[in-house]
Amino acid sequence: MSTATAGGAAAPGPPAPSPKRPRRMLGTRPWVAACFLLPALALLGALVVYPIGYSVYRSFFDASGDGFVGVDNYHEVFTDDRIRTALKNNVIWVIVAPSIATALGLIFAVLTERVRWGTAFKLVVFMPMAISMLAAGIIFRLVYEQNPDRGVANAVWVSVHDTFKAPPPFPGAHPRDDRLFTDSDGTFTTRAAVRAGGPAALPLVGAKPADMKGAEDAVPARDVAGKVTGTVWRDFTRGGGGTAGTIDQGEKALKGVTVEAVKDGRTVASATTAADGTFTLPSSADGALLRLPAANFAVPYNGVDWLGPSLVTPAIIGAYIWMWAGFAMVLIAAGLASVPRELLEAARVDGANEWQVFRRVTVPLLAPVLAVVLITLMINVLKIFDLVYIIAPGASLDKANVLALQLYQSSFGTDVNQGVGSAIAVFLLVLVLPVMLVNIRRIRRERQR
Question: What pTM, to 2 d.p., does this model score?
Fold first, then answer.
């Protein structure tokens, strides 16, 4: 820039300032930043990059690690029955477990906003997150125990079942002598027809002492004109002695046993034994056979085989949801706290009911948080291992198998083949990558808003 003088000549002005060089990120030299990042990069390479690279390399070799087999290990991943079962179970896990856990977390987070004890409820639901997978597996192995006296799940299930259907009074009891024979369906029937005026004696043995607690002494049935009477009792005298087929002193009655009179395969009358073991049938039972139905002596209902081949995977998924529903609830509750309340109130003013507010306002506003929870749980269940290994018994382990467990069994189990194990590891990485990419794209879109 120049300035004009009195004589018209232009004089040079002060030099224009040179543009400042942009300040580097972190205000320091690149090599200094690299020195600080180098330890983290070395650790990342040693714990992540190298294992991934070596797993890919190892997956092309045989069990010994010396013979190159190409893609044979990957072919086995898709043809071996155990691995295919593991893959099918992983699909079930990815679809069911994250969806239910996220849905429960959403329901808990919304409902607990309106109750005074909501914080205490959230604390209780979140507490399982403080328990390790190993401890949770041991807990639910006991919860799913088949014996109702030990397993909580079957104790509840059997209690509900027995509420609507009475348990058998004397499971395991059977005839003492040949006066009764056993039918193919487990019922006991007299060999000879009974007549009115002649009391019938139906001796049984094998009744468990626990079922005989509080039982009264058996007494011979009285002769009632025109009716069929009899006694059902446990023909056993403590300490030995007594006469078989005869009611001896101290022998106990079998109360609550159903007795049926059968003619030509048709039940014409029935009765239930009293506390002293006696029963009385009407005159229509004259000349009939007496039958003791199998329901009197059947094995008591023992609940559901939760860890059997058909239910073991849903049972383990239930244990996982018990642990992770609290995680989903806490994250969703944090997102719910940031939802503008004026939007909810505006919807209510416009006439929307609570269900419409929840479905059309709350859920759309929480969509980013729900996506984070869902994706996090999907990645988590793809590598599920501990719960399956601990909860599933040996007989059902193959049916509950998942890829992470199969990876362990192939690499370190009885038939060690680390080539196949490495192929499974690479396959798991390939399954996780799309979910990770979706999550990364979502994060970038949120940063651009």
Answer: 0.77
Residues 6+ apart with CB under 8 A from 109: 329, 332, 333, 336
The separation between CA 286 and the C-alpha centre of its own chain, rounded to angstroms, equals: 55
Give the pair of three-digit tokens for residue 348.
């209510």
Largest CA distance in the chain: 157
- Rounded Cα–Cα distance for residues 88 and 433 (Å): 19
Contacts (Cβ under 8 Å, ≥6 apart) of 231: 199, 200, 201, 202, 218, 219, 220, 221, 247, 253, 273, 276, 277, 278, 279
Question: How far, in Å, CA of 154 to CA of 308, rounded?
Answer: 13
Listing DSSP states for 399-425 in one string gives: TT--HHHHHHHHHHSSS--HHHHHHHH
Domains of the chain, CATH where assigned:
72-152+306-448 (1.10.3720.10), 174-296 (no CATH)
Helix axes of 312-337 and 133-143: crossing angle, nearest 10 degrees: 130
* C-beta atoms surrounding 290 within 10 Å: 26
pLDDT tens, the chain, 449 aa long = 445 454 555 555 566 555 555 555 555 678 888 888 899 989 989 998 999 999 999 999 998 888 999 999 999 988 889 899 999 999 999 999 999 999 999 999 988 888 888 888 889 999 998 889 999 999 999 999 998 888 999 999 999 988 888 888 899 899 988 888 888 888 999 998 998 888 899 999 989 888 888 899 999 998 888 899 999 999 988 877 778 888 988 899 999 999 999 998 899 999 999 999 999 999 899 999 999 999 899 888 888 999 999 999 999 999 999 999 999 999 999 999 888 888 888 988 888 888 898 889 999 999 989 998 999 999 899 889 999 999 999 888 989 999 999 999 888 877 788 999 999 999 999 988 888 888 788 778 777 76
C-beta of residue 259 within 8 angstroms of C-beta of residue 230: yes
Q: For residue 29, which phi and psi values (nearest 5 degrees)? A: -75, 150
Report whether 134 contacts 166 (CB < 8 A).
no
